[in-house]
Amino acid sequence: MSKKFEFSKLFINLLFTVLSLVVVLPFLLVIAVSLTDEKSLTENGYQFIPKSFSLDAYRYLLDAPDILLRAYGVTLMVTVIGALAGLLLTAMTAYVISRQDYRYNRVTTFYVFFTMLFSGGLVSSYILITQYLHLKDSLLALILPILLSPFNIMVMKGFMSKIPLRSLNQPKLTERGNFAFSSRLFCRCRRQH
Amino acid sequence: MARIDGATKRQMAFKITIPLLAPLVIIMLILSIGNMFRGDFGLHYFIPNNSGFLYGSTDIIDTYVYRALREVGNVSMSAATGFYQSVVGLVLVLSANRIVRRINPDHSLW
């Protein structure tokens, strides 16, 4: 296959090069600035190649490591617990909404969908979280408010409704009940994707 | 499969890929129209460093509500201002969806 010069290939490559540069260069700038001397920062500003190299910033950070460690611990815990609990709750909600024989199907779908379009704003969220849920000054305030996202519920509901129910409607499953049925459904979702 | 039929790359991109992407793009567009009046609170609060001189050009509704709640202490006024954002967003989403439904009912949100 001869190497032809095509303008479309040049354009696509150029586009992706520019996009990658736009993403990578700020990160490199931050790394370079973190390795610069404080004085040269005030004199020369942010440079890609530091005029005077110094590790003072890192020394200052690592002198008291427990602050950093606790911050990373909090981040890790919030992320792990939030992701697992959020996935469980989202999957449960989406499964229930996707079942056509659930009587309050349309009402619940509207209820979830409406919160995607309309919310009370900053002040009402604050009043709810501090006065009614009493989450002021606790770790749960970082985890609980973002567990369920209506967009994720809608996406999961779309996945689950595309799987034909007849293939899962074997008599042995239906007599074991809804939990076995829904776990088969999740495994089928994962396999199909 | 269209490549077998002899379509060029540009024809493939414009006639097949974009029409297949169109429903999802339009749904995300309608949802984003509802978020038009919201702003990036972190950017507009921390970069001016909360200096009073820059309020004329860097103040957005979110930072105004935050400042009114913390410093002035007038809860009802800041709640009303935040609520106004949501109401206008809802009206925008409803009208955007009605317009899309009139053009092509398959692409609308409901």
Mind telling me the C-alpha Rg of chain A?
Answer: 26 Å
Kindly name the structural category of chain A. Answer: mainly alpha
What is the averaged pLDDT score of chain B?
83
Low-confidence residue ranges of chain A? none
Name the chain pair with the biggest interface and residue counts per chain.
Answer: A-B, 14 and 21 residues
Q: What is the count of β-strands of chain A?
A: 0
Largest sheet entry of chain A: none
Specify Rg of chain B, calculated over alpha carbons.
21 Å
Query: What share of the residues of chain A lie within helices?
Result: over 70%
Helix and strand element order of chain A = HHHHHHHHHH
| Fraction of residues in β-strands of chain A | under 5%
Beta strands of chain B, count: 0
Q: What kind of assembly state do the chains in view correspond to?
A: heterodimer
Number of helical runs of chain A?
A: 10
From the spread of the alpha carbons, the general shape of chain A counts as extended
The major beta sheet of chain B can be summarized as: none
The helix/strand series of chain B, from N terminus to C terminus, equals HHHHH
